[in-house]
Write a structure and sequence with these properties.
Length: 86
């Protein structure tokens, strides 16, 4: 569980470094994901989901951002992102 929490924190920092605003909010049945609001890129994460599910949503968005490849990240996060891109 601590690995998931660490990857979630690192992923949120990476998203912030890439210019995303990461918001954790209660979204009911919605899983969350990426969107643009007022011209600003955002990632909505459903706070009602567990850390693993929030990490999966975050990775789905980051894996589609070509700028993420150039940012420094741990081997574990880089591996998870590569899995998503394959």
């Amino acid at each position: 569980m601590s690995e998931i929490l660490g990857l979630l924190a690192e992923g949120m920092q990476l998203a912030s470094d890439l210019g995303y605003q990461v918001r954790e909010e209660p979204l009911g049945e919605l899983p969350g994901g990426g969107c643009v609001v007022g011209g600003k890129r955002q990632i909505l994460l459903n706070v009602q989901q567990g850390p693993a599910e929030r990490l999966e949503q975050l990775l789905d968005v980051l894996a589609t951002d070509p700028e993420a490849a150039d940012e420094p990240k741990s081997r574990a996060l880089a591996s998870r992102l590569r899995e998503r891109q394959a």
